[in-house]
């Protein structure tokens, strides 16, 4: 058995054990009942929306790579993007998916440029998260200030 085959087998075994541990306390009858109550069109629509969103994120990554002078076929970018999503789902942090994308595309197209594009996406997502936090905080502040002073809480509330 080759080292690559052993690694794949180890990954399959660890995944199987982890899924088994998660499913051990699962009420399968209730889960089945829940799934049967949801219409099929809902599942298909949800899948389509998720796929379109992920392809759009891959497109954004492609634009960053092209701006850096790296021309990669879009199908390959989408494939590696989904490898990254898979890694994100099975590794303890979201960094694993970025590392996987940078590793697999970097070995063919230059690690530095691909890694830089992954870092740019990560920074952009972080800035977007902070922007959402600021907006949510401002909205919360507006609602808090609209309350009567006595109901706001805090040290001076009676």
Q: What key attributes describe this structure?
A:
6 helices, 158 residues, mainly alpha
Helix and strand content put the structural class at mainly alpha
Cα gyration radius (Å): 22 Å
Please estimate the helix content. over 70%
Number of strands: 0
| SSE run | HHHHHH
Residue windows where pLDDT falls under 50 for at least 5 positions = none
**Major sheet: size, sense and barrel closure?**
none
The helix count comes to: 6
Strand content: under 5%
Distance separating the two termini? 73 Å
> How many domains make up the 3D coordinates?
1
If you average the pLDDT, what whole number results? 82
Overall spatial form: extended
Q: Can you describe what's shown?
A:
80% of the residues lie in helices and 0% in strands. The chain has 158 residues and is mainly α. The protein has one domain (38-149). The longest helix has 36 residues, at 111-146. It starts with a helix and ends in a 12-residue tail after the last helix. The model has no long low-confidence stretch (mean pLDDT 82).
């Amino acid at each position: 058995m080759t080292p690559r085959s052993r690694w794949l087998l180890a990954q399959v075994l660890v995944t199987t054990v982890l899924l088994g541990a998660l499913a051990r306390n699962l009420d399968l009858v209730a889960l089945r009942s829940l799934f049967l109550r949801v219409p099929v069109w809902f599942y298909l629509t949800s899948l389509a929306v998720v796929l379109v969103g992920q392809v759009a994120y891959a497109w954004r990554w492609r634009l960053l790579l092209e701006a850096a002078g790296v021309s990669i076929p879009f199908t390959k970018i989408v494939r590696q993007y989904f490898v990254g999503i898979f890694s994100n789902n099975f590794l303890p942090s979201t960094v694993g998916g970025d590392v996987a994308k940078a590793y697999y595309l970097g070995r063919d197209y230059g690690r530095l440029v691909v890694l830089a594009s992954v870092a740019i996406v990560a920074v952009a997502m972080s800035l977007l998260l902070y922007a959402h936090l600021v907006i949510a905080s401002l909205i919360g502040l507006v609602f808090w200030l609209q309350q009567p002073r006595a109901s706001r809480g805090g040290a001076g509330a009676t």
